[in-house]
Amino acid sequence: MGDYSKALEFYEKAHQIYEKALPPNHPSLATSYNNIGGVYHDMGDYSKALEFYEKAHKTYEKALPPNHPSLATSYNNIGLVYNNMGDYSKALEFYEKAYKIKEKSLPPNHPELATSYNNIGLVYNNMGDYSKALEFYEKAHKIKEKSLPPNHPELATSYNNIGLVYNNMGDYSKALEFYEKAHKIKEKALPPNHPELATSYGNIGEVYNNIGDYSKGLEFYQKDLKITEKALPPNHPSLATSYNNIGLV
Fold first, then answer.
1. Measured between alpha carbons, how far is 117 from 138 in angstroms, rounded to an integer?
2. Residue % of the chain over a pLDDT of 70
3. Which residue ranges of the chain lie beneath pLDDT 50?
4. How many angstroms separate the CA atoms of 97 and 146, rounded?
5. Under CATH, domain 1-105 is a member of which superfamily?
6. pLDDT of residue 2
7. Residue 47: predicted pLDDT
8. Element spanning 179, H or E
9. pTM (2 decimals)?
10. Would you list the DSSP string of 78-142?
11. Taking the alpha carbons of 57, 60, 62, 65 in that order, is the dihedral positive or negative?
């Protein structure tokens, strides 16, 4: 809901109980650290997020065998923070550690491997290496196509990612094609005021804005805002993004 101080309050209450009831290296303590780290991450306090994600990781390392999937999740979380901090080489390092564990412990078309390819693709996209980003996003998409039903929301995420790279490359017709594929799936799979639909309208609006079709851009940004206003609390950061986009047009 975007009420991070409340989320933190409850996660910390949970953690205090775990600390009293469990031995110091119990995996549930690591999960608890992860939850707290996740809130700090969403608040944009990346140094705090890193601190808690690393505590979680140390606990997992002591409690679990070296190729356990939870360690991969842990590397992923740390990678995500570095990515958001703009330290892309570090992000790549941790995402690749996560991938190596998943490769050993999972079958070749497992959706978790697709998640890993997506993460690596995201870093390359942020680094401006769009051909690499596309390569990894397409690998992720192939796995999802094999393992998921045709209207699964995860496929929409996949189309979105590919659309984003084409948008960044300035290939707006391709970007629009993939964003619209994503939107069609979301329309079928999600309730009409779901925030994911708002994101989808926002992406399409951005492409129209980039090609100079401002009335179309405005139309989609306003659709985005309408859902965002209904779905999220009044001080949620996504509303600020939405207002910004309309101001930009």
1. 9
2. 100
3. none
4. 24
5. Tetratricopeptide repeat domain (1.25.40.10)
6. 77
7. 95
8. helix 172-189
9. 0.83
10. HHHHHHHHT-HHHHHHHHHHHHHHHHHHS-TT-HHHHHHHHHHHHHHHHHT-HHHHHHHHHHHHH
11. negative
